[in-house]
Amino acid sequence: MRIFRATVLDTPDDPFTGGALRVDHDGGIAVEHDGIVCARGGFADVVRDYPDAEVVDLRPGLLLPGFVDTHVHLPQVRVIGALGMPLLDWLDKCALPEEARMADPAYARAVGAEILRGLVAAGTTSALVFGAHFRPAMEAFADAVHESGLRITTGLVVADRVLPESLLTTPQRAYDDAVALADAWADTGLRYAVTPRFSLSSSSELLDACGAVAYARPDVFVTSHVNENPVEVERVRELHGTDYVSTYEKYGLLGGSTVLAHNVHPSDDELRLLAARRTSVAHCPTSNSALGSGLFPLRRHRLAGVRVALGSDVGAGTGLSLLKEGLQAYFMQQLLGNQGEPLTAAHLLHLATAAGADALGLHQVGDLSVGKEFDAVWVSPRSDGVLAGALEHAKDAEDALAKVFALGTDADLGGVWIGGQVPLARHTLVP
Ligand code: GUN
Ligand code: ZN
């Protein structure tokens, strides 16, 4: 038994529906050997109940739930930072040439190790990872995930048109590969996501094959892109003859275990359909900014009842930090003026943690309540940075949290736990 002593902040009650930030000043979280939180409260009270527990003193600083990234691309970690291109140019010139390199398993292994290290460094403990187009790359990634301890959902990306030849598959092969990987990963902790890249690179037959996998395996997730860029949206309509969301609906790909990235340009009908299917949207603020995709209509999603969480969308997104994504989400709602959703620090924390856990069906994480697994990140500002002084002078806990989103970087994270364990500790992931 260990007791983690810190000021603890989390959002078990959704701030978008009236919940407030939960704060334990000088709190104590008792964690069993199996990683489950068994008590929480003021440190003095918790230590009185468990006088023999080891105390992990995380003062000063803040303890938050581990971050949940609902959209991040495995093969794009080395192309972060390309500026000045809209989506389709960026895919052609930047992302897809890099993704073709994942055909080499040694290259894929190195990239997989890099992204897992990067996620942990950013305080991310769970992620829905958009995979690679090559099955050996995904098999190597699965091995690295098992060693890492991260909670990962991922799958082989499939496309059968528009993209460079080496990235294409066939509907039959897409079906067979997905079923084989989902079978191989069953009961390993790694969850499978059926992953058509986007409707623009999918024939009807390919989407149908993806729908068949989802139908045959009700336990799998589904992920793709939707309504990201106006030119893309128009081309999808020309190709499939419907709105973008309907291209997935038609093949049984929408449900409570589906996460679609972006949705910057939805119609009201599309929002209604996403809400009816309980499908989640991964909002990717730095990507939407870097590619000039547009300002995410968060308020329209909320009013329609669509579930929304945060994604880094690396490599169009500018890094793996969900602190940065949270801050950028806030900026973009400000820019929307009276159409925007005014966001507080509690909203940003919720989007980066509990909302992500909900989107990914990870009900055992997302906040630090009794009964949850202890997935946590310790914000421990570096002494030579501005954040340390800012936190000392924060008015209250919510103000401190806003400063963490405004100023915090990976260098300010002092520790990460997943199910009570330090990830990547047992193995170095250097290939
Ligand atoms: N749409 C299809 N593929 C991609 C991708 O890799 N990144 C983004 N942002 N959008 C996409
Ligand atoms: Zn993406």
Automatic annotation (TrEMBL):
<dbReference type="InterPro" id="IPR032466">
    <property type="entry name" value="Metal_Hydrolase"/>
</dbReference>
<dbReference type="InterPro" id="IPR051607">
    <property type="entry name" value="Metallo-dep_hydrolases"/>
</dbReference>
<keyword id="KW-0378">Hydrolase</keyword>
<dbReference type="GO" id="GO:0008892">
    <property type="term" value="F:guanine deaminase activity"/>
</dbReference>
<feature type="domain" description="Amidohydrolase-related">
    <location>
        <begin position="63"/>
        <end position="422"/>
    </location>
</feature>
<keyword id="KW-0862">Zinc</keyword>
<dbReference type="InterPro" id="IPR011059">
    <property type="entry name" value="Metal-dep_hydrolase_composite"/>
</dbReference>
<protein>
    <submittedName>
        <fullName>Guanine deaminase</fullName>
        <ecNumber>3.5.4.3</ecNumber>
    </submittedName>
</protein>
<dbReference type="GO" id="GO:0046098">
    <property type="term" value="P:guanine metabolic process"/>
</dbReference>
<keyword id="KW-0479">Metal-binding</keyword>
<dbReference type="Pfam" id="PF01979">
    <property type="entry name" value="Amidohydro_1"/>
</dbReference>
<dbReference type="GO" id="GO:0005829">
    <property type="term" value="C:cytosol"/>
</dbReference>
<dbReference type="InterPro" id="IPR006680">
    <property type="entry name" value="Amidohydro-rel"/>
</dbReference>
<dbReference type="GO" id="GO:0008270">
    <property type="term" value="F:zinc ion binding"/>
</dbReference>
